[in-house]
Write a structure and sequence with these properties.
Length: 68
Amino acid sequence: MKRWMIYVGLVVLFILHQDFWFWDDATLVFGVFPVGLFYHIMYSVVAGCMWALAIKFAWPDLGEDESQ
C-alpha cells in the first residue's frame, strides 16, 4: 500500500466525520441505536483500522526498534 493511499484515506475520514446528514434522522438501528450514534460507532471502527494500516505501512520498522 502506498503512502498516498493513507493520505487519501485520512482526507476521506475527515470529510465523513462531518455527519450533518444524520442530525435530524430519528431512525433506530437494531431498535436500540440512533442512526447518528451507530454511524459514529462504525466511523470509530473504520478510523481505528485506518490508523492501524497507517502504522503498518507508513512506519513498517516501528516494531523492530522495541525488541532491541
